[in-house]
Design a protein that fits this description.
With about 90 residues, the chain is mainly α. It is built from six helices and no strands. The model has no long low-confidence stretch (mean pLDDT about 85). This is HTH cro/C1-type domain-containing protein.
């Protein structure tokens, strides 16, 4: 994976949980600017940081699949998005 792909994946995981860059930075004990550099592919995070990011964003499976070259995580995200939208729709009807 390129640094841009890693950054995009980590951004998706952060946004999926609704965290701002500042919020994830605080939980990772790093600067918000470091989060920005990582997400934009300008800095490669350590494996330790990626593992902590995955833990905080509850994205271990997505990140593990992506790091080994498995594209199934993209389908999982798509399904999760559809189910979330359906749940919101049914909740508003009830």
């Amino acid at each position: 994976m390129s640094s841009q792909e890693i950054g995009a994946l980590l951004r998706m995981c952060r946004e999926r949980k609704g965290f701002s860059q500042s919020a994830i930075a605080s939980q990772l004990y790093i600067n918000r600017s470091t989060v920005s550099r990582i997400e934009n592919g300008h800095e490669i995070p350590s494996i330790d940081l990626v593992m902590r990011w995955a833990e905080i964003t509850d994205s271990r499976e997505f990140i593990a699949m992506a790091l080994v070259g498995n594209e199934a995580w993209k389908r999982m995200i798509a399904f999760e998005t559809v189910f979330t939208q359906m749940k919101a729709m049914f909740t508003s009807i009830a």
